[in-house]
Amino acid sequence: MVCVFSCKSLIQLIHHFVFCPRYRRKVLVGRVEERFKQLVEEICQENDWIILAMEVMPDHCHLFLNCLPSDSPSDMMAKVKGATSRRLRQEFQHLSRLPSLWTRSFFVSTAGNVSSETIKRYVESQKKRG
């Protein structure tokens, strides 16, 4: 019997991203938060990234993604932040005055010594700490 596996099912990385709006503005609330989550889900689906957890606070976002080793974290963030900034500023008048929605920086770590389940619980608990 010969087993054939796709590369996608064998080698995957898990990244924990944290990023903030410029000046840590509390803009990720209400309809903006809902639309942001929809856009992130669309971007991840288009790029074959699996969202393991996502928590959005008014002034920052935690995103826990499963992706291929060929996907660089900086390219992933460029896609997420670029597309969401553009679309949210087009759709929400109060954001249209901002030159960009996000800071240029972000935090990323891979799930290594800490289990994926531990990081997922941490990300989900952030909403409760508010």
Number of strands: 4
Model regions low in confidence, pLDDT < 50 over at least 5 residues:
1-9
**How can the largest sheet be summarized?**
4 strands, antiparallel
The fold-level CATH name is: Alpha-Beta Plaits
Determine the mean pLDDT. 87
The CATH class assignment is: Alpha Beta
| CATH fourth-tier homologous superfamily | Transposase IS200-like
Please give the order of strands in the largest beta sheet: 2-3-1-4
Second CATH tier, the architecture: 2-Layer Sandwich
Give the H and E element order: HEHEEHHEH
**Strand coverage percent:** 15-25%
Query: Which structural class fits the helix and strand makeup?
Result: alpha+beta
- Count helical runs: 5
Shape: globular
Radius of gyration: 16 Å
Give the CA-CA distance, first to last residue. 53 Å
Q: How many distinct domains?
A: 1
Percentage of residues assigned to helices: 40-55%
Keywords:
Alpha-Beta Plaits, four-stranded antiparallel sheet, 5 helices, about 130 residues, globular, single chain, about 45% helix, disordered N terminus, alpha+beta
